[in-house]
Write a structure and sequence with these properties.
Immunoglobulin-like; flat; alpha+beta; seven-stranded mixed β-sheet; Rossmann fold; 25 helices; about 1300 residues
């Protein structure tokens, strides 16, 4: 309190500032409570709700309590917040009414008058109830509440909460603690309200001032002081983020004015910052506030560097408070670069080298400030944030060394010394904060500029430190760039041996990443270094690379090309090192862009002519004449094939353009090796089922490897196919392999750009030839491409003759002449005169001789000649005489063959082909891809060039599918034949015939009276694709019809177009008809009830069924296929009849089935009466009548019991095998005992069997008859009541 009283207006711009609270009234009372009040006030946080929708924050309020004086009250126009009293408190412990009226009331009135006169409305009256004062004077003591009420009535009016009571503040009791808590809460609330109100008013005034920046007379420096006042307040409240925002806004505003100045929109106040820079002492970050620069800004005399330095120092302080030191480094690096540009933009006069000094000192100052607040482990782990400053400081120190003559070989001159003195003078005196430090930036810079040795020591120290940091964090590009700068330093010092490794490392990095301009620049430096070191071959390689570099001018390229040609034209002297032959990389001289084979295709037969066309892109700026161009080839004879199949995948043209990027960098270095993909399956261990499937890269460690992060030793070397134009390290001499096969060309002129060179390739030996190396010789210089990649190969093959037979059109149809194509690839065999092919064919596929058959001889698809072909055909063998043909030609001819359609299932005896193999009759089979049946016909061909026979198979398709059926009309028999066209062609049918197959009957006689009477049209018939033709014949015979007939159906057919008489082919179809005669006839008649003309629904009707025997069984056959004996012991046959109605039109009443015994000789008829009932009216079809064979059990096999005999009318239908499985058996009634099948089989009783008759053996005359059924009479009476 004493210090506050002595210097009430002292302002310290630091974080220790607190909001000012004035105290009036009883100072002794306040002094006794000050310690407790100051300690307890900031303990509890308060929520600070700010305006404009900003997020609320929790803050701890502190206060600077000072004695109330009227001088502390703000004057009109005062905008300072740090000296602004936010709250005024009046302290009193008065409990005497006389004392209150005489002194306290008047004192409070004066205090409030002063506050009102200065517009201050934030006040509070605290009445302290100590208890000791009442004991001293008890006569005039009034209750504390009375004094408080008087004060509230006199001064508070409507603000009763502005007067609070503090009870027993010095006692340790619950009442005292509660009173303290109430007071502290009121203080925090009022202080925060006052603070928010006044801060909001200040921000509005500041915003109004900023909006006036376009008006004349507006000053950025004045506005800077106002907004910095706001930043100080935030810092005072420990809201460092908000304070940093204020400085960032000022920084952005100032930067925008500088940019506008560069665009032509200059502000008048910016002229003060364009004054010459007289001091470049660097940043000062070791003080919380640099008062010198702040005062300069307040006076308007600060330079651009002063403004930027002060702004950054304040930002740095706040970032350190926020524990974000690494952001300081990023901002510092950005600041240093921007300041250099802003000085140039504002055209501020600066002494040469002054900015380098300022940047160097600032970098080290920032680094020292970061080191002071972080330990070594943190610095090492975050070197990526500081390495930029180390590298920038190194670069500026090198610039200062070059400026002051400390890098040259001769040392600094007098002019350099004068410049050094001027630069050191601009640094001024060392600051007190760094005077005691031995490694201060000031001392380092002064020492480095004092001598060549000190400069070299400091420069190498900084350079090595920065390079190690770059390597540690994996930024190898930056490390190599810094190493290149160090190499330039060594070159300027005349130490090329130190610079060579650094330049080589940087050059490899630039080449791998495709930086064309840095490659060119570094390569020139490399050439100078190699010349100084006396390495002629390496220097020659570099000169060749530079001669082909398009980034250089034509004069420079011509100069480097002259160096190469001069060396190539020097005479060879014995023992002369300079004139020794040099082998250089091809990538420096020319680039192989394409290899093309002539003729097209990289596969030829042995002895064929083959040329290789090489397209070379010469990189030299002038035309050169090569003494020799050679291509080394390698023959792999172990994998020589007998045909051209091995070389079919070889390309005829190989382009190499994609192998090199535009920057001169091989693309293989950028993309890495191609990924090797493979399938990956994950199976369940329990049942081995597939759980998942995917793709895995087997060489992922190579594909995703960072090529730029490898060490210099691991850098990619010369890629296959193109020499890597590295030229950094000494090139390894390359040469063609001795003894290798060569394609050579001599005295070849190469112009700049693409050149075509044609060489003849050897093809005498079969095998695969690989082009491996390329060499171009110019005098003493030999340019070699050690590996040609992608691999370029051509294949020379020796092919065996091959004979193929294929249809001329698909599919081959049986029964018609079809043309097949024979193709003979002669291979290495020369067809001589007299050579013939021997075809062994089957009887089912004769070869049709054609007198006009010719053979076509071609080579690679182009016709060479045509010759007549001699074909001699016999039953077994067909001989084809071949015309002479040279090797590796194709001989083609056509032959017609005819595959006979098989007429039936009969097979002939096995025959043998001429080669001894068994000849089998071809069988037709169903083909899965078509509805036609297929027949495979095999043939054996004996060739003159081989002792083995060639087996070939031709597949023919039968265009027809033939079906037959037997139809009956009483005793008359009709045979129907249906021909289906299952092919895609249309045919014409003619001469359709059906006849009995010639042959004796079973009794050895011939049947002369059988006649097939055709009921078909005599004209030709059209049979379209996927359509059918039906033919019908009636079989008549003067005698009885035989039990079976073997028939032959024949027809002539030909394609619809073209059509001529000779084109008709004969088609046979054999089939067998069994059980031809009609044995029984069934006639049914419906009899209505007596007195009725028609049947009525619901009434019983009589169904009269007559079963008549029409024919006897054939001789040698038992009755009804093995009949039996009747009940009287007479021979005869038994049939089972059954009446059923599956359509539910009739109800069978009584017995619906029974056995009928027929005598074994003569005609016989049996009549059966069955009662049925129609269920519906209308024309109803007759009930279905079935007649089945009754086959009794075999008594010789199982002897049944006497009790198990089945009566005629008690047969169970469980054993019947009927076609209609859904027949209704519910109406079958049994008059005897019927046992189940399972029970009878258990007792060993064999049941009779029922079989259906064959089609045509039973003819039902009433099958399609209908009967008229009238509705039943309706005798019901319907009573209708009407109301």
């Amino acid at each position: 309190m004493d210090s506050a009283e002595e210097k009430p207006a002292a302002v310290i711009y630091a974080m220790e500032n607190k909001p000012i609270v004035t105290c009036a009234g009883d100072q002794a009372l306040f002094t006794s409570l000050y310690t407790s009040l100051a300690q307890q006030l900031p303990r509890e946080p308060m929520e600070w709700r700010r305006t404009y929708g900003r997020a609320p924050k929790m803050i701890h309020l502190e206060a600077n309590f000072v004695q109330f004086k009227e001088e502390l009250l703000p004057k009109d126009g005062t905008k300072a917040l740090l000296t602004f009293p936010f709250l005024h408190i009046y302290w009193t412990d008065c409990c005497d009414s006389e004392a209150y009226r005489s002194s306290v009331k008047e004192d409070v009135s004066r205090w409030q008058s002063s506050l009102r006169s200065h517009g201050s409305a934030d006040w509070l009256i605290i009445v302290v109830d100590g208890g000791d004062a009442r004991k001293k004077n008890k006569s005039n003591i009034l209750p504390r509440s009375s004094i408080v009420d008087k004060i509230r009535g006199d001064f508070c009016n409507k603000q009763n909460d502005r007067c609070v009571v503090l009870s027993d503040p010095l006692k340790d009791s619950s009442r005292s603690q509660e009173s303290w808590n109430s007071l502290l809460l009121k203080l925090r609330t009022l202080l925060l309200m006052s603070f928010t109100k006044n801060l909001g008013r200040f921000e509005d005034d500041m915003r109004t001032l900023r909006e006036k920046r376009t008006q004349p007379g507006w000053s950025f420096c004045e506005y800077f002081m106002v907004q910095e006042e706001l930043a100080f307040v935030f810092e005072m409240l420990q809201q460092f983020e908000d304070a940093l925002v204020q400085y960032d806004e000022l920084d952005a505003l100032f930067t925008q004015y500088v940019l506008n100045f560069g665009a032509g929109d200059a502000a008048k106040w910016l002229g003060s910052f364009c004054s010459p820079v007289l001091n470049w002492s660097g940043l000062l970050l070791r003080r919380p506030i640099d008062m010198e620069k702040r005062n300069a800004i307040q006076r308007g005399s600060a330079s651009l560097l002063d403004m930027r330095s002060y702004l950054f120092s304040r930002q740095c302080t706040l970032l350190i408070f926020l524990q974000r030191p690494w952001e300081v480094t990023h901002r510092a690096l950005e600041l240093l670069h921007n300041c250099v540009q802003e000085l140039r933009l504002l055209e501020v006069p600066v002494l040469e080298g002054a900015l380098d000094c300022w940047v160097f000192l600032s970098c080290l100052e920032v680094l020292h400030r970061i080191e002071s607040c972080c330990d070594r482990a943190q610095l090492a782990a975050n070197s990526s944030h500081t390495v930029g400053l180390w590298a920038y400081a190194t670069d500026k120190l090198k610039s200062l060394g070059q400026l002051c003559g400390l890098v040259s070989r001769t040392g600094p001159t007098s002019e350099d010394l004068n410049r050094t003195v001027d630069l050191l003078a601009g640094l001024g005196d060392e600051r007190p904060e760094t005077a005691s430090s031995l490694q201060s930036p000031y001392k380092k810079l002064k020492e480095a500029l004092s001598s060549v040795e000190a400069f070299e020591r400091h420069y190498l120290e900084l350079c090595q430190a920065a390079m190690e940091m770059y390597r540690a964090i994996g930024r190898l590009r930056s490390a190599r760039l810094l190493g290149k700068s160090l190499a330039e330093y060594y070159m300027s010092k005349g130490e090329p041996e130190q610079a060579e490794a650094l330049l080589a490392e940087a050059l490899r990095s630039y080449v791998c990443e495709g930086w064309s301009f840095p490659v060119t620049h570094t390569r020139k430096q490399m050439g100078e270094c190699q010349k100084l070191l006396g390495r002629s071959v390496d220097s020659l390689q570099t000169s060749a690379l530079l001669a082909g570099d398009t980034n250089l001018t034509t004069e420079e390229r011509t100069r480097f090309c002259g160096d190469v040609l001069n060396y190539a034209g020097e005479p060879v002297e014995q023992g002369g090192a300079a004139s020794a032959k040099a082998s250089l990389d091809m990538g420096a001289f020319a680039r192989l862009t394409r290899i093309r084979f002539r003729p097209d295709g990289a596969t030829v037969h042995s002895g064929a002519a083959l040329q290789v066309e090489l397209t070379l892109r010469c990189l030299m700026p002038a035309a050169v004449r090569a003494d020799e161009l050679a291509v080394g080839i390698h023959l792999d004879a172990e994998h020589a094939s007998k045909g051209g199949a091995q070389g079919r995948g070889l390309p005829g043209t190989v382009d190499f353009e994609a192998a090199v990027s535009p920057a001169g960098r091989p693309a293989s270095l950028s993309a890495g090796p191609p990924p090797e993909m493979d399938e990956a399956h994950d199976r369940s261990p329990s049942d081995d089922s597939l759980s998942s499937a995917g793709v895995v890269c087997k060489n992922a460690h190579l594909v995703i490897r960072r090529h730029d992060s490898g060490s210099p030793q691991d850098a990619p070397r010369t890629p296959r196919g193109h020499a890597a134009p590295i030229g950094a390290a000494p090139a390894t001499p390359v040469a063609l392999k001795e003894g290798a096969r060569m394609l050579t060309g001599r005295r070849i002129a190469l112009e700049p750009g693409d050149n075509s060179v044609v060489l003849t390739a050897p093809s005498d030996e079969p095998g695969t030839y690989t082009l491996r190396q390329l060499s171009v010789t110019l005098g003493n210089v030999n340019f070699v491409l050690p590996h040609i990649y992608p691999s370029v190969q051509y294949h020379v093959y020796s092919q065996e003759p091959q004979l193929t037979v294929q249809p001329l059109a698909e599919p081959l149809l049986a029964g018609l002449p079809q043309t097949v194509k024979f193709t003979l690839l002669t291979g290495h065999y020369a067809v001589r005169k007299g050579d013939a092919l021997q075809l062994s064919n089957s009887d089912g596929m004769p070869v049709l001789a054609n007198a006009g058959c010719t053979a076509r001889i071609s080579n690679s698809g182009a016709a060479v000649s045509e010759s007549a072909l001699s074909v001699q055909s016999s039953d077994k063998v067909t001989s084809i005489s071949l015309p002479p043909a040279p090797p590796y030609h194709a001989l083609e001819f056509h032959l017609e063959v005819l595959c006979l359609i098989p007429s039936g299932p009969e097979r002939t005896a096995d025959e043998r082909l001429t080669n001894g193999e068994v000849r089998h009759r071809p069988r037709s089979y169903s083909h899965p891809d078509t509805a036609m049946s297929a027949i495979d016909q095999k043939m054996s061909i004996d060739c003159p060039w081989s002792i083995y026979s060639t087996l070939l198979t031709l597949t023919f398709h039968i265009p027809f599918k033939t079906e037959h059926s037997l139809l009956s009309a009483g005793n008359r028999k009709f045979i129907r034949v249906c021909v289906h066209n299952v092919s895609d062609s249309d045919f014409t049918l003619a001469h359709v015939k059906l006849a009995e197959k010639n042959g004796p009957r079973q009794d050895g006689r011939r049947r002369a009276s059988l006649e097939m009477r055709s009921l078909n049209a005599t004209a030709e018939q059209l049979l379209c694709s996927k359509r059918s033709v039906h033919c019908l014949w009636e079989a008549t015979c003067k005698e009885d019809l035989p039990s079976s007939l073997e028939c032959v159906f024949s027809a002539s057919f030909c394609p619809r177009r073209p059509r001529h008489a000779a084109a008709f082919q004969l088609f046979h179809y054999n089939f067998l008809l069994d059980k031809v005669p009609t044995l029984y006839s069934v006639r049914a008649n419906m009899l209505p009830l007596a007195g009725e003309r028609h049947c009525r629904s619901g009434s019983l009707c009589g169904l009269e069924v007559v079963i008549a025997r029409l024919a006897e069984p054939a001789e040698g056959q038992p009755d009804v296929d093995g009949g039996g004996t009747d009940a009287d012991g007479l021979g005869g046959s038994k049939v089972l009849y059954e009446v059923a109605d599956s359509s539910s039109n009739w109800a069978v009443c009584g017995r619906s089935s029974g056995l009928v015994s027929m005598p074994s000789s003569g005609s016989w008829a049996h009549k059966v009466h069955i009662e049925v009932m129609p269920l519906f009216a209308g024309h109803l079809p007759f009930p279905k009548i079935k007649v089945l064979k009754y086959l009794p059990h075999n008594v010789n096999t199982i002897q049944p019991d006497a009790d198990s005999q089945v009566e005629n009318d008690s047969l169970s239908l469980l054993d019947k095998t009927l076609d209609d499985a859904t027949a209704d058996t519910a109406s079958v009634r049994s008059r005897g005992s019927v046992q189940s099948l399972g029970e009878q089989q258990h007792r060993g009783v064999a049941l009779p069997r029922l079989d259906p008759f064959s089609p045509g053996q039973v003819f039902n005359h009433s099958h399609a008859r209908q009967v008229l059924v009238l509705p039943a009479n309706d005798d019901h009476i319907v009573e209708v009541h009407a109301t």
